[in-house]
Design a protein that fits this description.
By secondary structure, the protein is an alpha/beta fold. It is built from 17 helices and twelve strands. Strands 1, 2, 5, 6 and 7 form a five-stranded mixed beta sheet that branches. A five-stranded mixed beta sheet has the order 10-9-8-11-12, sandwiched between helices. The two termini are 44 Å apart.
């Protein structure tokens, strides 16, 4: 019977020498110790092999359930006398930390937390919510330590609005692997300086070929200081966001000037002006055409916004500059103040826009990473530990990449 429990338990190098089953409480308890031939002991401090035993003690841990029975395992562990570290507990692979849980139990809890909140997992596993968060953090740290870190060639920098209390969160991500690399509080130059100083060495900073960033001046100055050889590329979606704001300003000014009656007609239709024409169908296009019929300047502003997106279709800097010049020529005699301000801003940052022709980067990655972070924050109802949030976001990105790779292999097979 003991040999059967040893095979079922699956602790390599250990055998079950005692068992106890409580049918009323649905609880199974097993006592295990090393097999006779297993005398290989490793110091938990330095990792060297040790032969001298200081004392023998027992650790009671919770393991995966066996059918309907909650399982507890009492492990006999040695405290060894290491020449370098002194008296230390031996290193047991199935016991990754000092917590009373086995490695496979923590892995099961961590995998459950990938698709559910800590509160739901705690209710399912009959654990405290804080305990589940601690287990999940250890699981994520082990996953991160086992991964090979990819090189950083294309970097993305953006800020995420967290709320009135914490304000902004600076997010640095790898555009090639679509995973976040670092979080920083606030969005100052000193914030990004801290990333370059603490997370990258000089060789890694020189290896950065391009940085995708919005037109926030403190970020630009920090990048020029720490990675002067890289190309700064301004994010397409932030520029189009400024174009949407210009359209909205034109809408407000025009319909305020035309009186209350027409202002009532425009209510609830702002989203139509901020939507792209190709994403609208049927009656929505008809509503937008009706809006254009009511005011010609709004129509011109919408066309300017739509045509600006064609700026990133060009492969050569000269062609992109020619297109930008033609786009600005359309502003003559239009009396569209918000778009004139937009044109001045584009001229000020034209080098960062044209750099996209020289080095192609994935614009959508930054927004996708921010969306994943918002999803995690909403699911977890906030995170006080930025390290925990970063590991969760990294694990989500890695899981998505693994799933896509599996789907591709499945199609090929």
């Amino acid at each position: 019977m003991e040999n059967d429990w040893t095979r079922v338990l699956g602790f390599p190098g250990y055998r079950v020498y005692k068992q106890e089953i409580d049918e009323e409480r649905k609880h199974l308890k097993l006592w295990i110790r090393r097999k006779r031939g297993n005398r290989r002991m490793t110091c938990a401090g330095c990792g060297r092999r040790v032969h001298k035993i200081h004392e023998v003690c027992e650790r009671e841990i919770r393991d995966l359930p066996c059918f309907e029975f909650q399982t507890t395992v009492v492990v006999e562990v040695y405290r060894v006398d290491c020449p370098e570290c002194g008296v230390k507990v031996e290193k047991v692979p199935q016991l990754p930390s000092k917590s009373p849980y086995s490695k496979r139990f923590e892995d099961a809890v961590g995998q459950a937390c990938e698709s559910a909140s800590a509160r739901q997992v705690a209710r399912r596993m009959v654990l405290a919510e804080s305990t589940v968060r601690g287990i999940d953090l250890r699981y994520l740290e082990r996953c991160e330590a086992s991964r090979r870190q990819p090189p950083l060639r294309h970097m993305g920098v953006d800020e995420l609005y967290k709320g009135k209390k914490d304000k902004f969160l600076t997010v640095v991500c790898n555009l090639e692997t679509a995973e976040p690399l670092w979080f920083g509080r606030e969005r100052k130059k000193e914030t990004l300086d801290d990333f370059f100083r603490s997370q990258l060495n000089s060789r890694q900073r020189k290896g950065i070929a391009a940085v995708c960033v919005d037109m926030w001046e403190p970020f630009r100055r920090s990048i020029e200081q720490w990675a002067p050889d890289c190309k700064i590329i301004y994010d397409k979606f932030h520029i189009l966001g400024h174009a949407n704001e210009a359209v909205d300003e034109v809408r407000k000014a025009e319909f305020f000037r035309q009186g209350r009656e027409k202002r009532e007609l425009i209510k609830g239709k702002k989203w139509l002006l901020l939507s792209r024409w190709r994403n609208l169908h049927g009656e929505h296009r008809g509503d937008l055409n009706e809006l254009f019929r009511m005011n010609r300047r709004v129509f011109k502003a919408y066309l300017l916004k739509e045509s600006l997106e064609g700026l990133w279709d060009y492969q050569y800097p000269g062609a992109m500059l020619n297109y930008l010049g033609r786009w600005m020529d359309q502003l003559k005699w239009q009396r569209l103040g918000p778009f004139e301000k937009l044109a001045d801003m584009l001229l000020t940052h034209v080098e960062g826009i044209v750099n996209y022709c020289r080095t192609k980067v994935r614009f959508g990655v930054v927004e996708a990473v921010n969306a994943n972070i918002r999803l995690l924050i909403n699911r977890g109802r906030g995170y006080k530990n930025l390290r925990y949030l970063l590991l969760k976001a990294k694990r989500m990105a890695v899981t998505n990449v693994e799933f896509l790779a599996f789907q591709r292999m499945k199609k090929v097979a």
